[in-house]
Input
Amino acid sequence: MKSIALMSEKGGTGKTTTLLNVAAGLARSGRKVLVVDADPQANATMVLTAGQGPGEGATLAEVMAGTSRADDALVVTAWEGVELLPASPNLAEVNLSLANELGRERRLRKAMEPLKSDYDIALVDTGPARSLLNVNVLNWVDQVVVPISPGLFSLAGLGQLQTAIDEVRTYLDNQNLALRGLVLTMCERTAVSMDVERQLRSLYEDLVFGTTIPRSVRVEESHSRFQSVFEHSPQSSAAKAYAALVEEILPYVERKTNRPGKRSGGTSATHDAA
Ligand SMILES: Nc1ncnc2c1ncn2[C@@H]1O[C@H](COP(=O)(O)OP(=O)(O)OP(=O)(O)O)[C@@H](O)[C@H]1O
Ligand SMILES: [Mg+2]
Output
């Protein structure tokens, strides 16, 4: 299983939106996708459970605490080919409760190990805060993708994130961790948006994905309908852009898992006790 975290130290840059639409796009391409919601805001969980939230079952908080196996916390979503390890608001407490525990930076890496042949790719949503939770994510995933929305302070925090990646590689277990790229989200045809894009491309060159995601009302509508933009508005500019971004990511997700896996494509999200 490959793994990509959507991460940025700045809030509201399009992490969750990008995660959801890339998840949907990869699933449409036949890949078996696991979404791991490592953001206590639980926005991805809300969309993927059609507004129901994680329910009574175990979530990533219990997995991190060691009181549930990751396998037992998985949720089937209404998005075909996409399963979910949900977040709940008490995930924020993990940062405190694990602070003095042994192996605190390795909890997620260890918990995900048994799932590694069950999915083609895990996509991890994260919150904008620097936290033990995010260190756990960095110590597990292969790659980090950073959404950037052009505007004032758009690059804020990128340096700290690069330092965090270096430190995880040096001091923790994940020596192969790489900054995969920067993706421009919510781009507009304004001078400031185009300026930032130009600057970013000349500064970071190949590190910037070729695709830029336009600002589109269709994206916000799709969230409120608990759909991907492909389902909500397949002809929109945002759907076309996300399809192009998925094409850029697909070569990294080359393998197809043979295992049929858990149920998928149900009409409602339920905890799968199977
Ligand atoms: N391409 C887009 N066009 C229009 N609105 C967008 C687009 N992408 C994201 N948004 C909106 O911008 C807001 C922030 O997006 P999103 O929640 O994906 O960011 P985030 O980085 O996950 O935020 P947080 O740091 O709070 O987790 C949301 O209201 C979302 O609907
Ligand atoms: Mg988010």
